[in-house]
# Entry
Amino acid sequence: MVAINEEFIKKNILDENANIFGACIIGAPECMVISKLNFEISNEEVKRLTEVFTLFREAPLVIGGKNFTRTKSTSSYILAKNDTTGIALFQNNMGLIAVAKFLDNAIEPDRLLKILQGAILKALL
# Structure
């Protein structure tokens, strides 16, 4: 199992001075927020991500009217970020997971996660 925790996200996905505040399950009622990234994901589950998010490889992700370009991609994750936001997307046995953090805390975490969830659901339809 690969532990998806703050250290993993910092090392593999976001820059080192980013602090992760939480995650949500895409499609869950009320944008269900899960614990502080202490869940685990198997290597097989990690491999599914690229297939799910192939549509984000070419086009930028638009969230709340802002453009986010994909800056890093492997078989295990795809990242979209700009100067104030980091977003990681991946899948495990709970479903499709989004991890997001506003570096300047300009938007409440719950609001950001709802915007993120809505944007991804629209893109997948």
Q: What stands out?
A: The first strand starts at residue 2 and ends at 3. Residues 22 and 36 are 5 Å apart (CA to CA). Residues 109-124 form the longest helix (16 residues). Residues 14-21, 29-43, 45-59, 69-84 have pLDDT under 50 and may be disordered.
